Amino acid sequence: MEKPKVAFFDFACCEGCQLQVANIGEGLLDVLGSIDVVEFREVMSEKWDKELDVAIIEGSITNPHAVERIKQIRERAKVLIAYGSCATIGGVNGMKNNFSFDDIRKYVYGDSYQFFPTEITKAVHQAVKVDYFVNGCPIYIPEFITVLKAVLQGIPYDVPDYPVCVECKLNENVCMYDREVTCLGTVTKAGCNSWCINNGNICYGCRGMVSNPNEKGAQDVLTKYKIPMDLVLNKMNMYNKCREIF
Amino acid sequence: MEKMVIKDSSYRIKKAKILHTKKMTENEKFFEIVLKSGESLDHEPGQFVMISLLGIGEIPISVCSSPTRRDSFDICVRAVGKVTTCIHKLEAGDEVGIRGPYGKGFPVSILEGNSLLIIAGGLGIAPLRSLINYVLANRRDFGMVHILLGCKEPKELLFSEELEQWNERTDLYYACTVDRAAPDWAGNVGLITTLIPGVDIEPVRTFAAVVGPPVMYKFVIKELLAKEIPERQILLSFERHMKCGNGKCGRCQIQSLYCCQDGPVFNYEQIKNMSEAF
Amino acid sequence: MYVILGKERFNDFISRLSEMRRLFAPAVLKGYNNFAFEKVTSGKEIAIKYIPTILPPKKFFIPQRETLLEFNIAQGIDAEAVVEYEPMTIFGVHTCDLAGIQCLNMVFSERPKDYNYLTRGSKIVLIGLECNEYCDEYASCNLVNATFPCGGYDLFFTDLGDYFVIHVNTRSGDEIIKEIGSFEKVDTSHINELEKLREKKRKVFGNEVPIEGKHIPELFDRSFGASVWKDLEERCLACGNCTNVCPTCYCFDIRDEVELNLESGIRYRVWYSCQLEPFAKVAGGINFRKERSARQKHRYYRKFRYPVDRFTRFFCTGCGRCTRTCMAGISLKETLNDLIKESES
Questions:
Q1: Of A160, B182, B235, C88, which is the most exposed, with the fewest CB atoms less than 10 Å away?
Q2: Mutation site, C50, C239, C322, interface A, largest A CB count within 10 A
Q3: How many Cβ contacts (< 8 angstroms) between chains A and B?
Q4: CATH classification at residue B170
Q5: C118, C147 contact by CB (below 8 A)
Q6: Average pLDDT by consecutive 10-residue portion of chain A (246 residues)?
Q7: pLDDT at position A26, please?
């Protein structure tokens, strides 16, 4: 069987997810044994402008040029994977949506700001159809490999739609709330094996919110722990601003 | 960490081969399967097997052939999820893994000497086909046999060739209805419940066997009780997402009962007070 | 049979024990009032006084993730059912957790037997440890008769000040006593001390909920439609913490995983929770327990009602973990109290 042709593309992002892939280590050989990478800016100079079996997209869609480019990629790719928070949920780029775009452009580009068009930040699926999602900032490599296998098998991958708490408890971490620290694990989609909490950090909500959160219950919890609502909303908006678009 | 093979593990799969397939409708496909060991599946009508596509997953599917046919068995699969969609891609000669049969099916030895009112909605005909073909193979042991069949549209009718044969037989009463007719449909139109009042039965000597979508049960049971069929003689088969089949994983529980071991066939008396059943 | 172990010999005992098999015992998680069963090699690492660990010792009997099947699909299908296990000793198991293991033993030895569980369990030596004091306000072990030991261990330690009195319950327990050999014979004064402690406990470990255990099944028979469950609908975050930490919750999901070559792989099971939304969903999309209230209710019935018919015991061991871990403050004792109040009104 011929190996599928796979290209990695980036949009507005820090390219950290590409770095994660490049840093897989020993497992990378297995990955390269199963796919044929034809474009991957961070590790090779070749380009590919023909048909693709799989396009792997990092970054969010933030300007008219990006919209055109992602549409073209979608047209020539049989399967499209969005990976990383920027691509899957808009991520930190979504914070732009809090401000007036002219103010933002002036701040960044100064007097020549008019030459740099911008528009509302979108996740990739808010611009084109996405077949697979690998959430997280950065992506969690074991999940990336799981998704890659699903693509090769031609079966869907469902991002777990229950909170990070589930995996965190299985890892027997001390709950952040017991340490009197606010953590977004209660409303954030699992699938990362509570990576951050395992390493002593809180959950920042980088994987997006579960689809049916108990908002009333979550507010009661904040009240119980005397945590101000706007503090949590600010934390939430760091990654999740784009969920307001639809 | 040490590791050993468990020969009698309840998760061990039997190798099986697909002998024959047939696309039945847009969403349903039929498979005839044989165990590679040559042994018989040895199931009861109404029981289910776990079908494995190794690397993809495992799902519960009811057996739709009669146990009187011992050399192979049939299943009818509706493509609704990951595993079923992949099963649809299989053809004759492909291999699958089998566990089971599991659960309590229709108690055929108890049904003997009684009349039967068999009511199938949609895909519910699959497990009931196993019962019907068993009864037809042992026709002398039973009283009157009524088969009532319902589905949404004529194009969704399963086992259409067999339905015609049943329709022509003089030793059973067969009626079929669809919720929405097609232009070439000359039969009944309406919900399956409309067929029940017209059936002539002696209730104390009749067992009803009902399988259909969850929404159907409440209405059908009401009609059967109106016909004065005793609660214990109303047999219902429930659909739940069994994962282990061994009464352990908890996924198929209906209150205190495990659908995979205590069911999937229950009598109405057993479950009438269980709101989670309906 | 009882024996005595002087406290001065405890560290030596633990070191020797850890040389026999891998040894797990409750250890404090730095700086917080949280404990976990962890691998230890010396007595100093062990928290002799501890409240129930984050996860109960069920994690050794049904690991969070466990291989059931290994397969190869390169040519046709080839699969073998396997069990992964590790001989070990668990020291310091409280009576609530011993009761939890007894519940799991019942479930997994019911036919069809689960040989993964049974094989692994048969390699585990269990050493119990008595709670001299009530752990905290969340516990309700007395309500469910789990305050005092009743089998389920090889050795059982009770701390009586300068020494432990140890009940030897099984031959493997006896072998440990013989092999380590730092024990003394028991005399009547020791047994009297033990009785005195238990007498004191009987007074302190009072009834936590105003209902006798034998009336709980009737309470639940009356409560299926109670409004108490609706209240939980608004509070529960459906995070599954309560079931993951429960010593008797054992529900699981089964999944497949292939290697990148798509030729070989494993089928494994992972802990899963009736509190998570997809738990009771069938392929067609219908969810038989869509509401959080229905899922919470199911959890309570699986502790206090359903197992009574099947196993003649409660599947709550009174450890209090579900209450301690619940972010939303859903309290087992409070729910029982509310059910009693509602059924009386």
A1: B182
A2: C239
A3: 7
A4: 3.40.50.80
A5: no
A6: 93 96 90 93 90 97 96 97 97 93 92 92 96 97 96 96 96 92 92 97 95 87 88 90 76
A7: 86
